[in-house]
# Entry
Amino acid sequence: MTGASVLTGQRRRVIDPAEFGRVGVLMGGWSSERQVSLWSGEGVVEALRSRGVDVTAIDATRDNILRLREQRIDRVFNVLHGTGGEDGTVQAVLDLLGIAYTGSGVLASALAMDKLRTKRLWKAEGLPTPDYAWLRERADLDAAARRFGYPFIVKPSEEGSSVGVTKVKSAAQLDEAWQAALGEHGRAAMAERFVSGCALGHEFTCAILAGEALPTIRIEPDGEFYDYHAKYVSDATRYHCPSGLDAAFETRIRSICLQAFELIGARGWGRVDFMLDGDGQPWLIEVNLVPGMTAHSLVPMAARVQGMDYADLCWAVLETTLPPVAGVGQ
# Structure
């Protein structure tokens, strides 16, 4: 049945796993999100194998990603989270090697990893995102405190999984928040106005797959906000999908999230995080172009509501790496 496929949305629907060729699942890597990436990768490998895909698990290093052709890899399912795998670096290598891969290209990946520039682009195009400040030196943090008042958020501008994020509630936390945002290697940092929640809550996310915004998810974190512990460690964080939003408002929000995703040139799949304030106004926070695929991850939750199990989702994401059938959907 090789070649039996149709174009639906932004992905070519296939039946025969042989169409994918040999698939390398890039996981692990060298960022602060290495462990999360390994969890994601293990799930993807198992799911694809269960569907008959010829898949190879690859714990990525700076050396072995340059030798993927030697392993006869035809395409890559990238679940490298954070620096290197999500910021356009690995994407550039794969482009040079001529290997198709899941997710966005170099430019969109670099933009999405830089929260400051993403927010500048959204703001310039009239999309709602909380006020922010670039923290170039410690004095900028004091200025941000005066501008935003307490509480406000301090975080790295180029990090994921809520690494280094602090909800600053008083001046006594400023030094600690500054150090957490900078990390060991002096990352770029930013401050952001805190968005107080609506009656339902205030943390939401919207998964994107092949040009479609999936049902939104409302998050009740175990703790004050959706930090690393709440995401990957705690079993007390609660998720609601459907999120409970009014149907018309849900449609509007999904449209805004899809626009935010496409505005930075993203493709394939990803996730847009947003908050709702006390007046029900949506505020875009960030976009994640290599979302988690762990047992706690959000994209698989939204896919289930859409009628796709975990293996279906992995298959669908992989389908986005295939070129359209000649003469179809063009």
Q: What stands out?
A: DSSP finds ten helices and 16 strands in the chain. Confidence is low (pLDDT under 50) at residues 1-8.
